[in-house]
């Protein structure tokens, strides 16, 4: 089990230069990105960065959300509803209404199985399998009896039991 805190995170500019992201976790092999977990804020309508070779999954944490539109895509990014899309497709945020929405992002290499992203609530039991990342995005929680403070990330390969009044974002990554 590995516990990461904001002191472990890195702020990076978006690939398209229109904002920044807080990178919570990154896994690479021989300099090639396998997986990345991050948190960002969408403040206005505009293009998302392209990430050919990666799958993307986004979950709005705070704010009203927005739509992601592109060739063959029109996704409603509502709060606490994970949405998946390919990183190789040009896609843009629309309908932001000028109101900021914070989101949690999961990116994984195309050759890996798709990540499973869900919202874990009070009493959720998540089985072992793959690398399970539990992010206390909206407030503190308890995982397997240990406290997980707000904005902390727990990585485990074992099962996890979640308690607390705040939901936890659970991302299961495979092939790392």
TrEMBL record:
Protein origin, superkingdom: Bacteria
Coiled-coil residue windows: none
Protein name (record): HutD family protein
